[in-house]
Amino acid sequence: MNKLAKVALASLLSLTAGAAMAQEKEIAVIVKTANATFWQNVQKGADEAIKDADGYSITFQGPASESAIADQVNMVDNAVNRGVAGIVLAPSDPEALVPSIKKAWEARIPVVLIDSAIADSASDYFQSFLATDNKAAGELAAQAMIDKIGTDGKVAVMSYVAGAGSEIGRVGGFVDYLKANSNIEIVGPFYSQSQMATALNQTTDVLASNPDLKGIFGANEPTAIGMGRALAQSGKAGQVVAIGFDGNEDLQNFVKDGTLAAIAVQGSFQMGELGVETVVKVINREPVEKQQDTGVVLVTKENIDTPEAQNVLY
């Protein structure tokens, strides 16, 4: 057993006794919002995993928007108060969720994080973290941008919620890679609050005020959709190199028609499936890794029909 596994197991032996006694044997899956297909695909993965978790059931919740952080805090607190067996959580804010995760730890309820990191101060309070390596994913998108436009010009960055763990790594990785490997001028970032309409309006404004823009990056699903729609409406689809993030049907269609040059797609189904599988292992006192990478695939018009791409698209 490797060191990480031993540490995770040792920290949980005392936690799991209480969790296993939860009356309803409920696993609470709490995501950033229930109103995006990315998170709905996480739910599909969780639903698949629970089929093999004998005696357990899941509940799935998310606020109306990713910026409704207080609502997510309440959802986690309520799950702790009703004594669930385990929690799979995609935290919307790295600091705001710390007290709630600590409450779960104090109540001996194991927590598995997906998608976004939590503050370092809470590292003892969760048992595993499953996510795309967002920094590496941002770098992958940046390299694709350089491959398309070269090392000069302007690139706009359309981001989502400032300070979210995934945003820090993803957008930071993208921007830092461009700065280190090119002379590209960064415009932004602009924050859509994960609202498609906001991203559309912001992108429209950016395109109008930067007629010499060479490239644009949309850092999550609703932001990238809004970005793609703005490009199409402005007549600049295919003229400005656009790279998005995530892989729902709208974004796939943008890739197919050339509006987007590429999309970096996370394994959202895998996050839900592996998240539930991991928390069940913790409950059953089986060793788990403290960190697990769920991967990312750069999908283009050339590879969109390949098995590698189809396995992550949704």
UniProtKB/TrEMBL annotation:
Q: Which InterPro entries match?
A: Peripla_BP_I, SBP_2_dom
Periplasmic binding protein domain residues are 27-284
**Mostly located where?**
other
Q: Which CDD domains match?
A: PBP1_ABC_sugar_binding-like
The GO molecular function terms of this record are: carbohydrate binding
- Location(s) in or outside the cell: Cell envelope
The keyword Transcription is assigned to this record = no
The protein's name in its UniProt record:
ABC transporter substrate-binding protein
